[in-house]
Amino acid sequence: MLRAISLLLGATLLCGHGASARRVVSGQKVCFADVKHPCYKMAYFHELSSRVSFQEARLACESEGGVLLSLQDETEQKLIESMLQNLTKPGTGISDGDFWIGLWRNGDGQKSGACPDLYQWSDGSSSQFRNWYTDEPSCGSEKCVVMYHQPTANPGLGGPYLYQWNDDRCNMKHNYICKYEPEIHPTEPVDKPHLTNQPGDTHDNVVVTEAGIIPNLIYVIIPTIPLLLLILVAFGTCCFQMLHKRKARRNITKDSSPLSSECLAESLNSNLVHTVVSFIPYHVQNNSCSLN
């Protein structure tokens, strides 16, 4: 029950209109910060020639520590549908293309009654959950299972060819879905998915992650840093020039007043001495003449 609730919560997070925008990206491992919630990867190839057989898809998942997708119940099925809807929403350029899952048949099973019971999960899962399209499986030489994803195809007897299962020849070329053990990141907010890049991924991906409050603030602040620096430099330069001019005025005022007084005093003294000196000989001379 707890696992079903966890998976249902994941589907709500991916598709809820009230949640922050998230996109499942081809070739990206999508995880949830939940110890009971597996990680998944949708591998979609635009070029038909790049798509792979069942065995190639299985080996690709195992080479990255995962398995080809097994589905435990309807809740997990709905989660995968939500992720595929998010991956292939309008504007992504992704359209028709079925996905290998890890269900396959080991044996001939020509009898219609025995055939469905011979299908098993490649990871050893004992899940009995099935989501066959109408009149499937057809058995015969078709032993490996895909999840339909043909949104542009005309609906058949079972409705649109979307997310139901169909058995196909194992050497046919399709996309695939991998499943991994949960990855726990204690620093991640609980119940919020994160995207982890896979080394060596050759797909043309556009990574879009959740935008929280802090990232949004960063995106606003970073572009304004040059403007803030320019304002600070201009303000500092203006203050420096004002202080320099004020200091220069103070120095001129301080130095000019004593100098003017001193110069005036010296000038007055010099004139007085000159007058006295000039007067004395004249006075003495006049006295001398009067005596004679």
Automatic annotation (TrEMBL):
> What membrane topology was assigned to this protein in its record?
Single-pass type I membrane protein
Its GO biological process annotations read: regulation of neuron projection development
TM helices/strands, residue ranges: 217-240
- Intracellular or extracellular location(s): Membrane
> Pfam families given for it?
Lectin_C (PF00059)
Q: Which UniProt keywords apply?
A: Lectin, Membrane, Signal, Transmembrane, Transmembrane helix
Major subcellular location class: membrane
- The leader peptide range reads 1-21
Domain C-type lectin span(s) in chain numbering: 35-179
Q: Which InterPro entries match?
A: C-type_lectin-like (IPR001304), C-type_lectin-like/link_sf (IPR016186), C-type_lectin_domain (IPR051505), CTDL_fold (IPR016187)
Q: What is one GO cellular-component annotation here?
A: perinuclear region of cytoplasm
Molecular function, one GO term: carbohydrate binding
**Protein's recorded name:** Chondrolectin
Q: Which organism does this record belong to?
A: Jaculus jaculus
